[in-house]
């Protein structure tokens, strides 16, 4: 039975605990064993937190035995991206710059999730300082894609995705600044939720761009995402009962989203759209010039803030960084303060135009990524390939970040391809209901 546990949804594991069919201690030991002994374990986990996990599992068992469970995920083991502070445990954000950094208190979201009863299994590998959509990290480890061990898993929440995809955690908590939850989720056939900026606390998370940084789960089902969101923010999960696609209005974004798309992501998306229509969704196509203009502002807004946050630390020891990531940070040095401020003022106007355009739709849909996971070895040896693939990987997901939206990626059924649903800011509950129905249509 324990092998089956490794590939159940977090919600089903929670129900098993609730029904007395699953012992939280046995469940945690099962995951700790898998996380220690799987052939890719060292490429997924930067470090395990065995002592903490066992203590939390024992407490969850006591609550279960007394009929005092704190919620559906009480006793369910999950992983944490290595940018969330964990008291007394190294949190290094995949970078030699932070080697040996040990925080004294948990990040707020980890504290909230622990209060909800989840079990912290350990810290997962990631792109260096979260500044890449690929997941390639020669400084620490590069997590492999579940569908191709020679390919990258997607970043920056690469280990978070692979911990779930390989059965080494029931769910993973990642972060999304430009697509870092949704890319690895899509490439590893998972559900990934990007939350609205400022909805979920980033206190105690190593920053990249504070005006874009968001927290989000990577998991096996939309139901899992709803319960994990509630755990992260200390709230109640969305009501997903009775969700339907009948009459739902969806807008396919034609602007840029399909430029240079590879055959597999296009086929996966088109197949998914056909199934959504068959389930009753009404699908329109629209161009949105404001999206093209917003994407052109990306370098100004992302790189400048990232370098502004990290420049002193980086320039004190640049030799320990992966050169591609170092160069990406340093590109922010050339951006002036007036250009940065003007860029943000223009983006706010573009967000208003976008809000008007999508007001009549339940969600905007587009391929999560226009490419498949690239080959890790070629990324290390071919700089032009690295730059091209990194920019393409993040292009579609950045639409949601730039527009300040909530977003969810679902697997299409074709390996390593996803369909992304984008809603208005703070529309997580509506999106989760819609995607519950979409998930049923796509399964």
UniProtKB/TrEMBL annotation:
Signal peptide interval: none
Domain Amidase: 27-432
Keywords: Transferase
GO MF entries: transferase activity
Classification via PROSITE patterns: AMIDASES
Transmembrane feature ranges: none
Protein name in UniProt: Aspartyl-tRNA(Asn)/glutamyl-tRNA(Gln) amidotransferase subunit A
Organism, scientific name: Litoreibacter janthinus
High-level lineage: Bacteria, Pseudomonadati, Pseudomonadota, Alphaproteobacteria, Rhodobacterales
């Amino acid at each position: 039975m324990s092998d089956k546990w490794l590939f159940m949804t977090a919600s089903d594991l929670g129900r098993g605990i609730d029904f007395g069919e699953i012992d939280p201690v046995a469940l945690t030991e099962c995951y700790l064993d898998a996380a220690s002994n799987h052939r890719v374990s060292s490429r997924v986990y930067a470090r395990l937190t065995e002592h903490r996990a066992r203590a939390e599992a024992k407490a969850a068992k006591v609550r279960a035995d007394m009929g005092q469970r704190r919620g559906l995920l009480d006793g369910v083991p999950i992983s944490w991206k290595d940018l969330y502070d964990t008291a007394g445990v190294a949190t290094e954000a995949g970078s030699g710059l932070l080697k040996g950094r040990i925080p004294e208190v948990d990040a707020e979201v980890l504290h909230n999730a622990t209060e909800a009863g989840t079990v912290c299994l350990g810290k997962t590998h990631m792109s260096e300082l979260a500044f890449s959509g690929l997941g390639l990290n020669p400084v620490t480890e590069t997590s492999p894609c579940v569908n191709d061990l020679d390919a990258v898993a997607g970043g920056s929440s690469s280990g978070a995705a692979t911990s779930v995809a390989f059965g080494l955690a029931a769910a993973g908590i990642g972060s999304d600044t430009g697509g870092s939850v949704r890319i690895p989720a899509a490439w590893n056939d998972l559900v990934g939720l990007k939350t609205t900026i400022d909805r979920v606390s980033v206190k105690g998370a190593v920053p990249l761009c504070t005006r874009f940084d968001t927290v989000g789960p990577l998991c096996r089902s939309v139901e899992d995402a709803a319960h994990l969101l509630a755990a992260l923010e200390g709230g109640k999960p969305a009501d997903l009962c009775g969700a339907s696609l009948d009459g739902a209005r969806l807008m396919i974004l034609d602007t840029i989203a399909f430029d240079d798309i590879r055959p597999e992501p296009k086929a996966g998306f088109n197949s998914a759209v056909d199934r959504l229509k068959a389930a009753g969704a009404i699908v329109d196509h629209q161009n949105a010039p404001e999206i093209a203009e917003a994407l052109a502002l990306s370098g100004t807004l992302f790189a400048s803030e990232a370098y502004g946050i990290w420049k002193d630390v980086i320039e004190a020891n640049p030799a320990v960084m992966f050169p591609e990531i170092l160069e990406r940070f340093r590109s922010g040095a050339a951006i002036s303060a007036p250009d940065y401020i003007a860029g943000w003022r223009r983006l706010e106007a573009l967000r208003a135009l976008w809000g008007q355009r999508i007001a009549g739709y339940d969600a905007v849909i587009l391929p999560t990524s226009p490419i498949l996971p690239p080959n890790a070895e070629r990324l290390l040896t071919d700089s032009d390939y690295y730059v091209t693939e990194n920019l393409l990987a993040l292009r579609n997901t950045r639409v949601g970040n730039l527009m300040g939206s909530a977003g969810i990626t679902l697997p299409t059924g074709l390996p390593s391809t996803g369909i992304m649903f984008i809603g208005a800011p703070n529309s997580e509950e509506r999106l989760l209901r819609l995607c519950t129905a979409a998930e049923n249509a796509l399964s």
